[in-house]
């Protein structure tokens, strides 16, 4: 576990005034934008294009994957996502700090972990299928 994740688990974040920090890092230009940060631990909340999403976003995406699999199932396959699998996936996401704490986390990190969790319970679902539903 990273140091930021350990701090994040202990800190009930309180947003402080925003500081102007880099939004996009590019070799040719740098854009600044106000970023809220935690007054207690100092972790900065990402407000750029890779901003983290709340848990509900990933639960909705899981439902989209479930609907997709139901359509595939009606074509003769046995791909249905069971309620037990769905509950296990959601439970594991609820237990993951990166889906509950929006400070010090990037969306790409959340997406990678979401794919890992879904494939843990349904290894037959290809990564590209999950990524398609995350777009």
Task: Tell me what the structure shows.
It contains five helices and two strands; from the N terminus they run αββαααα. The protein is mainly alpha-helical and 135 residues long. It has one domain (3-134). It has a two-stranded antiparallel ribbon. The mean pLDDT is 81.
Number of helices: 5
Name the helix and strand elements from N-terminus to C-terminus, one letter apiece: HEEHHHH
Sum up the overall morphology in one term: elongated
The share of residues in helices is 40-55%
Radius of gyration: 18 Å
N→C terminal distance = 28 Å
Oligomer: single chain
Approximate strand percentage: 5-15%
Low-confidence stretches: none
- Main beta sheet, described? 2 strands, antiparallel
Task: Compose a concise summary of this entry.
With 135 residues, the protein is mainly alpha-helical.
Show the helix and strand layout:
Blueprint: H1 3-10, E1 19-25, E2 30-35, H2 55-74, H3 83-95, H4 107-121, H5 127-134
Antiparallel strand pairs: 1-2
